[in-house]
Amino acid sequence: MVTISKTKVFDIRNSIQLKFAANYVALIVLLLVLMNTYPISMSRNLAFTSKMKTMEDQAGIISASLSEIGPLSADEVSKAMSSLEDMNLTRIIITDTDAKILFDTSETENNAGKYAIFSEISKALNGMDVFYSVLKNNAIMSRLAMPVQYKGTTIGTVYLYDYETEQATLISNIQKNMMRISYVVFASSILLALIFSRAVTKRINSILSAIKVVKEGSYDYKLTLKGKDELTQLGNEFNRMAERLKTTDEMRRRFVSDASHELKTPLAAIKLLSDSIVQNENMDVETTRDFVKDIGREADRLVKITEDLLSISRLEGETRTKPYKVDMKNVVFKALSILTVLAKNSEITIQFELEDGCFVLAVEDDLHQIVFNLIENAIKYNEAGGQVFVFLRKDDEKVVFITEDTGVGIPPEDMPFIFDRFYRVDKARSREAGGSGLGLSIVSDAAKRYGGTVEVSAREGGGSRFVTTFPIYKGGQEL
Q1: Where are the alpha helices (DSSP H) in 216-319?
Q2: Which domains does the chain have, with CATH numbers?
Q3: How many Å apart are CA 401 and CA 391, to the nearest integer?
Q4: What is the pLDDT of residues 378-414, one digit of tens each?
């Protein structure tokens, strides 16, 4: 016995192919219903209108002939009717004002002298023209009643009845042919719906399969779809997304590896120094003090690396403080006031020119980190007796922050990589200065977050030049 799992049934019922085919077939059915009702209805109405016009003309001729007689009698009516041409009607009845039959063309019954109890005749005696027609049993059955007027007074009625099969047969044949065509169209539509939906869903399934493959970590998988429609564009976007995921994953792996290495180095040094103190029982106080100082420096490096990693995590996190209007000049002043002592101890002179009105839509702490890192680097990687130049100004629609130093500079081959995480130009000097290799990466990420840019170049006369730009704040602006 074959069984179908509930999951499979659920998948089939919720399949986009089934929904697409069902919607397509439903549309075709609606069109077929309209095709089988509207034309037939129009044909029937045209036949009724034509029949009404013909019977009104015929009744008008009879009524005009009888109105010349005056008060109606059976003999006078028979004479008048015999003088008229055959009107090819199924039945003609003439009544007086009491609805008594004066003339009847029916060959099966002798109705002369009887009363015609028809609603149409009753309405005609009240001065109304009455017409009624129906298509039934492959025949058009029509009835018309018209009053006979003599000097403005109703003296009788003309009642016409016609039973016609020719037009009814024509309408019936049209209806049958439309039904046959509908059956063929319906069957074809189901077949085409299955073919088209299969073609579309096959491509969608290809995208779904590719998503599952990439979800498992195979970022090199490429999706190939032919055509130029939206699904092809979706496939191309998927390939680009997979490339970005691959790049991000590689960066993540490299970041984890670099972070582990950077954390491992000071930890290993602390372990080595502490073991040396423990294992050497005869170590003098001065040497022990030096070892402890070295342990403190390595601990400071760990703190710096940890703080920088937390800064990166905060910049990349989803929970962010809403940006607000920040005066960049105040931010630079605060950073300079803190770093003045470091510059003095390093025998570095700082010169600055700060322009008013440099407002940026950002978070002050992030801007402070950018300014602080750039000025701190200009001091740390400078030479004794060197200079640091800091500029802040407005340039068109931008706020420009520039730091320059007279240090040894950055080799051209290293410039494209200095904003990468854990990248160092001079690793020995960076570690000696307490650098983590994350400062410039944090600067770059923070600047990009607020629509800014940061660029590096060699300074004329030696040293490095960093230029950071931000969109200038405009009133009512939101990020």
Answers
A1: 230-279, 285-316
A2: 323-471 (3.30.565.10)
A3: 6
A4: 998 888 889 999 999 998 889 999 999 998 888 888 8
